[in-house]
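Tutorial sheet, problem 5. The two components below are modelled jointly, 329 residues in total.
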Amino acid sequence: MNERYSPDDLMRFLDGEMSPDERARVEVEIGRSTELQRELAIYQGMRSDFLSLSFHPAEYHRSVWDQVNATVARPIGWLLIVVGITVWTAYGAYVFSASPLDPWEKLATGAVVIGVLTLLTSVIWERYREWGTDPYKDVYR
Amino acid sequence: MQAELERELIRMIKAGDTRFYEPLVRAYEPSGLRLAVAMMGNAEDAKDALQDAFVKTFNSLHRFDLSRPFGPWFFQILRNQCRDMLRSRKARFKVEPLDDRLEERAEDSELGPEQAHQRTTAKETLWKGLEQIGDEHREILVLKELQGFRYSEIAQILDIPEGTVASRLYHARHALKGALILLGVEYA
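Model answer (structure tokens):
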């Protein structure tokens, strides 16, 4: 490589990243050095080989949009479900507590509901903890 | 896609309307796939990486600075996604048959049988050379030679100083040249 020009300069020249003045000076140097000419020719040849690659899979026709959309829309769906359930539960609890039922009926019904919710929560929590430590969670069939 | 249109779409998405994400995905899908295939080595892993990158981009849009261009920012996320996948046990840079990886260009069909064979062989050799150089070399070559990014954009995508790009490109091209020579390519 010519002492007055670093490999970086050759790259910037090849990639059109030089000002016209710099470019003119490098062109003069290249004209003087057969080593630089050879080096440049090699990289230009590699560039034209690159241009023959398209990197498009031949069978690729389906957009990834459907999968992306399904994934980005999912949290919104969950949020709406949680908000809806919370509102309905609160409203149901209010209606139930304000109803003219006997206190023992309210207590018994409340105990059943709280029991079911406690069991459901414990199962969900257990599954969540297992998922966090499952070494096979990234393995697909 | 025009920068102003992109900004407008991102403003709408930030305001909560996810429908406006679709034009962005469709606009960046072809070039994103090109980068992902070149980094992952096969279409299947590339599509997974691309899909995950679009989801991560969507989830990070609230942090996106509207005064900056969207493209380099997205490609930085995609590049990181590809690297994460390559590092993980899910994927390794694995090459699949040529027909699945490359589509025939229009001018290829106009070549004679011998020239077409030479072109195919040259593609295969280049691909094998890319396979043999490291991820860092491959990604910068792909960004420059296939995507045609300027140094400033490459610096942004790779998160390196602009002054380092030329040096990294030199080392990458030098490594590829060495790999191609080992594969039997002769340079006069």
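Marking note: Residues 63-92 of chain A form one domain. Full credit if you identified this.
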